[in-house]
Design brief:
Layout (H helix, E strand, L loop, with lengths): L1 H25 L3 E6 L2 E5 L4 E6 L6 E2 L4 E5 L2 H51 L4 H48 L1 E3 L4 E6 L6 E2 L4 E6 L3 E9 L11 E7 L5 E11 L4 E2 L13 E10 L9 E6 L2
Antiparallel strand pairs: 1-10, 1-15, 2-9, 3-5, 3-8, 4-7, 5-6, 7-9, 10-14, 11-12, 11-15, 12-14, 13-14
């Protein structure tokens, strides 16, 4: 009887030992939660928000217009600048016409100079007449130079206004707010009709086609990981079974930290660990915040 009890106890010990070994073998190497690389979409222009073509939970396409800011104030400024450009162009035309008139007067005086020069040789004209002609030509030269400088000033003003026009047109184009990525709207901060400031956030979006499983590994596990390494990712499938996916290590922290409170027990929280991100393709079943585990591939 005693021998039977000893055999039974020995068998039970062996069974428990094997079960413990199997559990350790099946145990995951790290635990964590899924997260996404989100992005804040902001307005580059201050004004009234005319439309918002997005809601929380919808998917936005990259390059699509998701909101529009009122462009009327900017358009009025643009119209005013364009009118100034037209006025300056008219002034430039008048200046150039004036230059043409003075140059023609100078040409006429040059003809007089030739005649007076010939007459002076024959004694039919005086030196004073010649001096008057030369003086008149100098006056015309100064008038032409002065008028051309006015033309240059007007050209400079035109360039300044042209730059301002380009800036306004750029601002008007930025009133159409574009989605920078293909992503899911996680949070919406503004509604149509509200006033927004420059740089103010409209929504938060994230590309959920792949998610990052942020896990924490101990120092003795760290040498077994490297960027790009493939690992098994386990998520809950049923109450007793896990679903296995494949992931790749995309980031490893260079600094140790205490284990976050949401991850481990109070005993585990005092340990120093390293954060690791594992990139996992999302077939639609993965959700932000969902728990997950990883297992190193031997």
């Amino acid at each position: 009887m005693r021998s039977t009890k000893v055999k039974w106890a020995t068998s039970l010990f062996v069974a428990l030992a094997l079960l413990s070994c199997n559990r350790q073998k099946d145990a995951s190497d790290a635990f964590g939660n899924f997260e996404a690389d989100d992005q804040i979409v902001s307005s580059e222009i201050a004004g009234k928000l005319l439309s918002c073509n997005f809601e929380e939970g919808i998917t936005l396409s990259r390059g699509s217009v998701i909101a529009a800011v009122d462009t009327v104030p900017l358009s009025l400024q643009l119209t005013q600048l364009e009118s100034q450009v037209m006025t300056i162009q008219a002034r430039k035309q008048a200046v150039r016409s004036q230059i043409a008139v003075i140059e023609q007067q100078k040409k006429n005086l040059e003809k007089d100079k030739i005649r007076i020069s010939n007459m002076l040789k024959d004694g039919a004209a005086t030196q004073k007449q010649m001096d008057d002609v030369n003086g008149g030509m100098e006056v015309f030269d100064k008038q032409i130079s002065n008028t051309k400088s006015q033309d240059l000033i007007l050209s400079g003003e035109t360039e300044v206004i042209a730059t301002q026009v380009a800036q306004l047109r750029d601002k008007i184009s930025r009133c159409r707010i574009i989605s920078p990525i293909d992503g899911l709207v996680l949070e919406k901060y503004k509604k149509s009709g509200e006033l927004i400031g420059q740089g103010q956030s409209l929504c938060r979006i994230a590309d959920v086609s792949s998610l990052n499983l942020r896990v924490y590994v101990s120092g003795d596990q760290l040498p077994h990981l490297k960027i790009g390494q493939k690992v098994k990712v386990l998520i809950d499938d049923t109450a007793t079974k896990n679903r296995i996916l494949e992931g790749a290590v995309s980031w490893i922290s260079s600094e140790a930290e205490f284990t976050p409170k949401i991850i481990q027990t109070k005993v585990e929280r005092v340990k120093l660990v390293y954060a690791v991100k594992v990139k996992v393709a999302n077939d639609g079943s993965l959700k932000i915040g969902m728990p997950g585990e990883i297992k190193f591939i031997d």
